[in-house]
Amino acid sequence: MMRTFLRHPRSGLLNLRALCLILLALDLPTGAGAGAERAKLERPVMMDSNGPGSELLVLDASGILHELRVTQNSLEENRKITLPRELIAADMAYSLSDGQESLLIAGTKSGRGIVVRYSLDGRSLKTWSFRNVCSGIDFGVASHSAYVATSDSNEIYRLDLQGTEITYVTRIANAAKLGPLAFDEARREIYVADVASGRIYQYSIATKASKVLVADLSAPTALVFDPETRRLFIADPGRRAIFTVDTRSSKVVATEFASDPLKAPYGLTLISKGRVAVADYGTHSVLIFSSKGGLLFRFPSPN
Length: 303
Prior knowledge:
five-stranded antiparallel β-sheet, globular
């Protein structure tokens, strides 16, 4: 079934993405400590980290949120939380506001867009409701705000995590179906993927202008921006690879960062020491790559 989807990246992969979006919701938690039996990682689809830092949060297709501790050469599971089943999740972002660590989940509930802020032990902290389907989210530390993309209206909104306000930012007029989003807080620029056309758009909050940054991808399912190197990382399961874009370059191109042994990389994030973590749906594992794209190790271990 996976091979069939990958042969048709423009259509079938979007259906696979829809099948993989996890049902979440409000009552929680059932946790397991580090000494408990490790759960099998079933088709991981999205992830984020605290920084990049030493904590990795992975949501898998069985509806379990895995909290993993990052060490030098391995990942160790601290806790797992089975999230309830009312919210269809599309993207997630770690956030830190008012000293509270949390996880922002963007998706839909009862056909309407929603963003839910959860504590890391699974408690629902705050909810924002939208008229449109929420498909991408990222968080700005300094501004205590999150930016949210919608797939049915191709709009972007700003959320104030210290309040309840939802502010309209822009509409990407030429986009077909917006998906994951990444935020460059220093330059106040938003990167958002068009999962239907295989494009990445760049939007400047200062100038209120958008442009196509790169094209000719398959159906990008995750974006992450590295503020230190100013590289944008892109997960493209249709092409079974992770790509990077140097946003400082005068001639912007998407360069392959890692492929083998990836089968369907759906999510990615940055972790400590410049490493890149990838949620690979196809291999049922999280793979850790060096800053140069070399495979370091995977979780769970194949041994």
